[in-house]
Amino acid sequence: MAYVVKRLLTMIPVLLFLSMMVFSLIHLIPGDPAQIILGQDATPSAVAALRAQMGLNQPLFMQYVQWMGKLFHGNLGTSLIDHEAVMKLIGQRLPVTVELAIGTLIVALLIAFPLGILAAVYRGKWADFVALFTSTIGLAVPPFWIGIIFLLLFTVKVHLFQSSGYVPIWQNPGQNLSTMILPMVATGIREAAVLLRMLRSSLMEVVDQDFVRTARAKGLRGFVVIVGHALPNALIPVVTTAGIQIAGLLGGLVITEQIFSLPGFGQLLVQSVFSRDYTTVQGAAMVAALIVVVVNLIVDLVYGFVDPRIRLTGGRS
Amino acid sequence: MKKAGTSLAVISTLIAMGAVVGCGSGGTNNAAGTAGSAANTTVTSTGSQTGVLNVGLQADPSTLDPALSSALVDRQVMANIYDTLFALTPDGKIVPDLVKTYEVSSDGKTYTFHLQTGVKFQDGTTFDSAAVRFNLQRDMAKTSARASELNMIQSIDTPDSNTVVLHLKTPYSPLLGVLTDRAGMMVSPAAVKKYGDDYANHPVGTGPYIFESRVKGDHITVKANPNYWKGAPKIQQVTFKAFSDPNVELTNLENGAIQLADQVPAQSLSTLQQNANFVVSNTPGLGYQGVYLNTSEAPFNNQYLREAVDAAIDRQTITNVVFKGEASPAWGPFSPKSPVYDAKQDTPPAPNGDEVKKFLKEAGDPNGFTFTLQTANSPVSAEVAQIMQSMLAKYNITMKIQQLEFGTLLSNNTNHAFQASALGWSGRVDPDQNTYQFWYTNGPQNGSNFSDPTIDKLLDEARQVGDMSKRKAIYSQFMDEMHKQDPYIFIYFQNNTYAYSKNLQGFQAYPDGVFRIADMSI
């Protein structure tokens, strides 16, 4: 418990530092929202007037302090472009990406575990070859390409799935899955390739250790030895990788979201950067940072479950 | 047992991640609910019921408020929600619309509009002269994107509820053309007062379609206005879906998710034209594309170097290679659809190597020179830039290419922070709107920082003369001067290219590139 509290406390300076980085970076990019709203034919005086109306003519430091003040009250501000609460915009978009990220990871695990285990059991044999081949293909072929091929195959040639028209899962699970399965598999293949390599090498390392030899000596079958004894000990790097993957996916699914026309969090962030919607970029980046920090904490806590030898304490280990 | 424990741990990790991440959107259930109900409408719209149309758009409209709009894609939606004071016909003529009849005083400084009677906004309030005055004043406000289009208006009188009188500072012949576009779109004053800053999310006009719902970045749904003053439209519901990738938009057309797409990538044009299930509309638009040369800075403060670049570029090759029939070579700001288009003057001559060498010599740089072109980071912009680069390299003119994100490109252009900047213009009906602000001394879009008394005089004259044939003669002199000075290298006129399902009837291409869905049926 003390460990969790300590970890939560260390999150504060991290997030504070990130808030400064995000704020200064977005304000450093040339171009400003007033210019973009008023378009090409705006006079400089009109741009200045709109900047004043938006509160952008104040010193940057003051703008930062005001933003932080609101942030401490849990208010991410109002979008400069859409005039809607940033919280509301994020609330509309984040569930889409969260579902996509979790689905992608499930697909990745479903591919990586059986193949990874087979590769370790039949080391150097055909199963190992198939696993390595799959992971090389998964790493070499970009998800956007797989995505476009999937669209052409499964929505144009065969009308199996829908290419757009996302609905939240609680509204219509059938339609939701019909629009979500293809993007989940398209990105899942790549994530599976990463996990598969990690699991295979980690398992092979464990398989060479004494306790595995002992288990074999006791006469246990190869498969039981791997799944029952070796696998739990090989999971730590896999859990770490999966944690990094899910955190990365939450901000890194932009291209998948574009190809499958999903109104996701990544698209919100990218569109806001293009329109210089400072408040939305800041809000979305802070939420993304918070997610990464929290996911990392959870991954560390999960270590304790996966391997009871790892004790999570507040002090030195 | 151990095995079960492990898999439980893995599963619980996933659930925990989901739960925590779910918390991130906690407290915004309300918002998610709104998104849901909007998306629900899409479910019904993808069904086979007639009278429902799904339209693909190349970007998510940034606003549905005509006073703030600065992108063509906004107009695709707004043109169906709002009517305009004047309207454009498919062949480019300007005709009265919400204005029934009008008179212009002989000195060209007073416009009297007699409005249509019995027209109501979609919120039930009456469209009258007070509403017109409210709209024009709103658009003339400093922080409106329309301000520069209406700044010639001195005052607005409303002698009775159906008459509006505009008094201008000086004669301004582009006025009616301007009023066919966003400055002429009439929004409900009651709705603006009700929603304030949030008006763009609750747009109300007098048009054939009523705004229903929107999920930002995804779709906008509108439904037919049963009380439309020109008669209820045939298509009952329209959903506009945003696609940031043109190939994805095309795939959605091919699989039936949309029935009308607002762009066709050049490389897909011929395949789609051969497909019997779709109709392709490929007609010239009003816009032009090219390169600003910064006349206030080396190297392009030297007029001969500007002329050398102009003579070296082979526009025909660019349109053949990059656009495959979706664009035509340009040598002026007036497209083939413009009332002042002059085929002789606006069609570029073939590149002339001797001329290029002569200009370089006169400039004092016979061995060539180096400059940097700033261009957008899109594949098409890059391709055009690379072709230009190789054309200029023949004469030892080294063009470096710097690809920038659009907001940065625009900002650098406004601040004259460039040597050459590839940026075009989507085009307007009136020739003044395609010239004045770009090349008049200190014009709002004069990125080249160009100033020439002859050009200024001609541009002033052209906007004060009412008769189009007289204006055409003035613009002809203007183009002669532009071809000598070359502050801007015109490269191509882009076409408006659409594709739609053959079930869609009544589609008409308009020169402004905007759909009129009220014309259509399915």
TrEMBL record, chain A:
It is found in: Cell membrane. GO terms for biological process: transmembrane transport. The keyword Chloroplast does not apply. Coiled coil: none annotated. It is a multi-pass membrane protein. InterPro entries: BPD_transp_1_N, MetI-like, MetI-like_sf. Keywords: Cell membrane, Membrane, Transmembrane, Transmembrane helix, Transport. Belongs to the binding-protein-dependent transport system permease family. This is ABC transporter permease. It comes from Alicyclobacillus acidoterrestris (strain ATCC 49025 / DSM 3922 / CIP 106132 / NCIMB 13137 / GD3B).
UniProtKB/TrEMBL annotation, chain B:
The keyword Signal applies. Keywords: Signal. The keyword Cytoplasm does not apply. Residues 93-445 form the Solute-binding protein family domain. GO terms for biological process: peptide transport. One of its GO terms (molecular function) is peptide transmembrane transporter activity. One of its GO terms (cellular component) is periplasmic space. This is ABC transporter substrate-binding protein. It comes from Alicyclobacillus acidoterrestris (strain ATCC 49025 / DSM 3922 / CIP 106132 / NCIMB 13137 / GD3B).
